[in-house]
Known about the structure:
This protein has helices at 24-29, 63-66, and strands spanning 2-3, 12-18, 37-43, 50-54, 57-61, 69-73. The protein is mainly β. It has a six-stranded antiparallel beta sheet with strand order 1-6-2-3-4-5. The longest helix is centred in the middle third of the chain and has 6 residues, at 24-29.
Amino acid sequence: MSTLLDLEIESRAVILEVLPSSFSPKMAEMGLIAGAELSVAFKAPFGDPIAIELNGSLLSLRKNEASLIIIQLI
Length: 74
């Protein structure tokens, strides 16, 4: 099972699941839902935060948030 943390820069993936947390509703509002396609635009030094491209927008997620997103490479 891979998470968004495992995705390399410029690689594409589809979200399989977003694990439940207090941040899950906010992620859903941002479009991070099952079936959504995304890519990693860049990672800051030490990997935190991570910038992802989703639906033409650039979003920033911390490591603990990205670890909640289960993905499959495409």
